[in-house]
Amino acid sequence: MMDWERFYREADYDRCAYVGGEAMVNLAARFFERVGVPDDFVSVGCGPAVCPFGLAERFPDTEFVGLDVSETVVADNRERADDMGLDNLSFAVDALPDLDTDREFDVVYSVATLYFVADAERAVAALWDRVRDGGHLVLNYPNRYSRAHFDREFDGRRREAFELVLDSRNLLTYDDVREVTGRRPRSYWKLVDAEDREFADRARPCVVVQK
Ligand SMILES: C[S@@+](CC[C@H](N)C(=O)[O-])C[C@H]1O[C@@H](n2cnc3c(N)ncnc32)[C@H](O)[C@@H]1O
User: Fold this and answer.
1) Mean pLDDT over each residue of the chain, to the nearest integer
2) In terms of Cα–Cα distance, which of 46, 49, 24, 53 is closest to 194?
3) What does the alpha-carbon distance between residue 32 and residue 37 come to, in Å, rounded to a whole number?
4) Shortest CA distance to 112 belongs to which of 96, 136, 89, 129?
5) How many separate domains does the chain show?
6) Residue 47: domain span
7) What is the CATH number of the domain that holds 19?
8) Which end of the chain has fewer CB atoms < 10 Å from its terminal CB, N or C?
9) Does ligand 1 lie within 6 Å of residue 117's CB atom?
10) CA dist 115 to 53, 58, 100, 204, Å?
């Protein structure tokens, strides 16, 4: 299974958004236009936190938090936020499928993370639990189309990294998300008018659920 702490400690990693690339910042800003600018926003499995960094500059009145299982990426992000003078952006170590934080947020955002979490339904429940009433969960998850896609495209170390998905151990469906949250998920990509064809790929589901 992927050892993310080792990856960030040993690799000269890129500060990239792993699903959707740089476009994710503009799409999230559009999401704010659609649903209202949140008071606070947490990215769970934030990695190098492309979205939180991009958004914190544009929305200075919103508090952004990034949580990740890797101490190294959390420390790197803290240093960078300090260097940039961003006082509305903070980071902490925390891990799915359960979260230590008991704080609620207007937006709980978890993209490109559930692929690496064994107990996906428990993770969705933990994320949903952190959403304030009236707030939103934005969730990207692996499904059977992701598995088929990875099986076709990935070899070597990438297969190891995506072992849980390839072994069908953490695949979710739209109905699973509906069952766990008790609400009807909508497509995030549709809500934010993501035009690029890659966002329409059913192997890359991302839903938004309002509490
Ligand atoms: C592919 S990166 C995605 C980063 C970012 N969300 C993005 O979209 O670019 C996956 C991130 O999830 C983190 N992660 C993996 N397992 C996790 C877990 N159980 N709880 C929290 N974070 C986890 C990793 O450390 C890594 O930073």
Assistant:
1) 94
2) 24
3) 5
4) 96
5) 1
6) 4-210
7) 3.40.50.150
8) N
9) yes
10) 23, 29, 20, 11
